[in-house]
Design goal:
This protein is mostly beta strands. The chain contains 1 helix and 14 strands; from the N terminus they run E-E-E-E-E-E-E-E-H-E-E-E-E-E-E. Strands 8-7-6-5-4-3-2-1-14-13-12-11-10-9 form a 14-stranded antiparallel β-sheet, with helices on one face. It starts with 17 loop residues before the first strand and ends with a strand. About 5% of the residues have low confidence.
Length: about 220
């Protein structure tokens, strides 16, 4: 899951949490998910609840992912952790035991793109390259992101200025697929995503911010 990508965390040390509700449309299929962010000691924690799946991401203060966990029903239970340039993935996927180690280079690992890409925008760079894990196959791939300017995105009936970012596979596969993210200019909040996740003829997936849910 490129967007989002559960431990019981000691939240007594965390800052106030804020949650947002998003809606995802792919053809006739509609679902909602809750996206939550909090700060815990020296880490930023992004947790996503969608249908029967939970993604939890620990990132540093620059958006680089340090730890990722994904649990969905009884078929998927995955953990990944980066130490230096070593990325270790363990768990089970569709009844198959996973225990693999991948050697990365100095590029960052960005798992919750809905969070990590805001740091690329804040830095003012025109483009960046990073590693990510496909949650469906657990393939570790390199991606590139390019700033595409400023658009207006409608949220709750109101136009909101949003920075546009296009993502693609890095290297030879860059022409085969792309997706687009929008982040609110005022604070970097993820507000919209568009992309096709499948072969030609597959319906486009659109994710849109619906509302802020609560603070505590």
């Amino acid at each position: 899951c490129l967007l989002l990508s559960v431990g019981a965390l000691p939240l007594a040390a965390a800052t106030a949490r804020t949650a947002w509700l998003y809606q995802e449309n792919t053809g006739q299929h509609v679902k909602t998910f809750q996206w939550q962010h909090s700060s815990l000691d020296d880490r930023e924690v992004v947790t996503v609840h969608e249908e029967n799946g939970i993604f939890v991401n620990h990132c540093d203060r620059t958006g680089r992912t340090l730890f990722w966990q994904f649990h969905q029903g009884e078929t998927k239970d995955i953990e990944a952790v980066r130490r230096g340039n070593e990325l270790k993935i363990t768990g089970t996927l569709e009844g198959r035991r996973i225990d693999s180690i991948h050697t990365l280079d100095e590029r960052p690992w960005y798992q919750p793109l809905s969070f990590s890409l805001r740091f690329f925008l804040a830095a003012g760079s025109p483009e960046t390259s990073f590693w990510t894990i496909r949650s469906d196959t657990l393939d570790v791939v390199t991606m590139q992101a390019k700033r595409q300017g400023l658009d207006e995105i409608e949220i709750a009936g109101q136009p909101v200025p949003a920075l546009k970012v296009e993502i693609r596979r890095a290297g030879l596969f860059s022409s085969l697929w792309h997706g687009t993210f929008w982040f609110r200019e005022a604070d970097g909040l993820f507000v919209r995503y568009q992309g096709v996740h499948g072969p030609p003829g597959t319906s486009e997936t659109v994710v849109q911010l619906q509302r802020e849910m609560h603070r505590r």
